[in-house]
Write a structure and sequence with these properties.
The chain is of the alpha+beta class. It is built from 8 helices and 21 strands. Helices cover 23% and strands 36% of the residues. A 6-stranded mixed beta sheet has the order 6-7-8-3-9-10, with helices on both faces. A 6-stranded mixed beta sheet has the order 13-12-11-15-21-14. The protein has a 5-stranded antiparallel beta sheet with strand order 16-20-17-18-19, with no helix packed on it. Helix 2 packs parallel to helix 4.
């Protein structure tokens, strides 16, 4: 990827009445990057995407493509294409004609259209279906047609607004792999909007997590998961235990009165009232803690939920804390499931926790 950003948002804001849909967002996206905007409904991610596309003009700030200010440039004059959740295909046209539609509107020569459409069909693995009508296709095939139609225009940036939302889980996971493969092959910058954490983690080079119109953290998927900078990011990306307490030197005194080491990872603003975040898969569960430097609590199992590859246990500790632990099912191991009501010890290594500011 080039060091020079293809997409830049400079202090961009958009308001609707008294509500800030996007609130002073700064963002650089590199050439050839698969970048995802992730967040709950109403966080501002789609508004941000539509400002990049030119469908919405920001109230403040600037939108730049390849260093050129396009803030007031209409969508049809921006070198971007958008793929929506609704495929917007023409039922009366064949797959090939749907893909060629934009090229014909732009007056591209017929020979060039045939070549690009052929490349597009091959890219999305639909060459045998070139003559089929849209109504004969599956949902996943329709999404591939929409993707090919956008890519044959060779935009600098492809914007994707929750394009897999209408697909079932199995097909959605298959399409995630296909999208990442296609993005690597074409080398175009992808900006992808989703509320699905797994989807963003699976496909993205970097992710921007949005909340109430602001970017809470922009980072690589592993960094977001292992080293969240805010309690919102920790709770939104996957599952985590958030244990409330107060900072006291190199210790945190939890609400139940137990003191735990802060570990190596502390958010810069986690000074007084804090939350200790520890992922359930990092929490050990057993009759006694493993040897070594482990934060340990005793309690009783209150719930056991079978998840297939693992079981999720909820443990009410003696000091009142509720801790969740995910225990994988080891191949060939005897059944050691902990029954509800059984006394157990839960614990984790201090370095497996992150101390975050408590904003509540």
């Amino acid at each position: 990827m080039s060091e020079s950003p293809t997409v830049q948002l400079v202090d961009v804001s958009k308001r609707y009445g008294d509500a800030a849909a996007v609130d002073h967002v700064d963002l650089d996206i590199a050439t050839g990057e698969f970048f995802s905007l992730l967040g709950p409904s109403g966080c501002g991610k789609t508004t941000t995407l539509r400002m990049l596309a030119g469908f919405i003009v920001p109230d403040e700030g600037a939108v730049l493509l390849d260093g050129t200010d396009v803030t007031d440039v209409p969508p049809y004059r921006r070198d971007v294409n958008t793929v929506f959740q609704s495929y917007a295909l023409f039922d009366h046209l064949t797959v090939a004609d749907n893909i060629a539609f934009g090229l014909k509107r732009r007056g591209v020569k017929k020979q060039e259209i045939r070549r690009r459409v052929g490349e597009g069909l091959e890219l999305v693995d639909l060459l045998p279906r070139a003559g089929a009508r849209v109504k004969e296709l599956s949902g996943g095939q329709c999404q591939r047609v929409a993707l090919a139609r956008a890519l044959v225009n060779r935009p600098k940036v492809l914007l994707l607004d929750e394009p897999l939302g209408a697909l079932d889980l199995k097909l959605r996971r298959q399409m995630q792999s296909e999208l990442k493969r296609i993005q690597r092959e074409v080398g175009i910058t992808f900006v992808y909007v989703t509320h699905d954490q797994e989807e963003a983690l699976t496909m993205s080079d970097r992710i921007g997590v949005m909340n109430h119109g602001r970017l809470e953290q922009v980072d690589a998927p592993e960094q977001l998961y292992e080293a969240p900078s805010t309690a919102f990011v920790a709770g939104f990306i996957g599952n985590t235990n958030l244990l409330r307490g107060r900072r006291s030197g190199d210790m945190v005194i939890l609400e139940g009165g137990t003191k735990v080491p802060v570990g190596a990872r502390v958010a810069s603003d986690a000074i007084d009232r804090v939350l200790v975040s520890v992922r359930p898969e990092k929490v050990q569960l057993g009759a006694a803690p493993e040897a070594g430097d482990v934060v340990a609590f005793t309690g009783r199992v209150t719930e056991a939920v079978y998840l297939g590859a693992s079981t999720r246990y909820s443990v009410r500790c003696d000091d009142g804390l509720l801790v969740t632990s995910d225990q994988p099912h080891a191949a060939g191991a005897e059944d050691r499931a902990h029954v509800v009501g059984a006394p157990v010890t839960v614990g984790w290594r201090p370095q497996d926790s992150v101390v975050l500011a408590d904003s509540d």
